[in-house]
Amino acid sequence: MQTLQSQQAQGDNQLLMRANGTNGQLELFPTKIRIKREGLIQTVWRYKWGDKEVPLSKISSIQFKDAGFYPGYIRFSFSGADQMSGIKDIYKDVNAVTFGRGAQHQDFKRMKTAIEQRISEIKHSIERPQQVSLPIDLAGQIQKLAELRAQGIVTEEEFQSKKRELLDRM
Asked: Are 23 and 98 in contact (CB under 8 A)?
């Protein structure tokens, strides 16, 4: 039997989208991104970099450069991250993945949109926590209404209307 925490962890590890670039892959999960380095060149770099996972809630900005004469890139900024000093450094940047024109470019455009959407959803869920519905003591409320009716504060029609409204909530 799985615990709630392990079920949530499995959900957090559900791959939503992947885009393959020229110097690595970018994977989107419900609450994080993963920058992976695979291939011959990346095997050499892996010793230095390795895969990198970043919670979506920690991403402060996304830089996106369209592919053209030079390769395009997607780069993530978050607090505590090193800042890139120039376009030549993008190939060495652990927070970036480069991509070519055509299908790769389109894949990374879709990825950027999906990441922004997930970040927005996470931010929205944090700002607006789900409302907790409290159990209603229907019998107690109907009894109070009956007392108000007996005191003449509430008419019989008002009592019956409110009683029906409360019973409909069940």
From this structure: yes
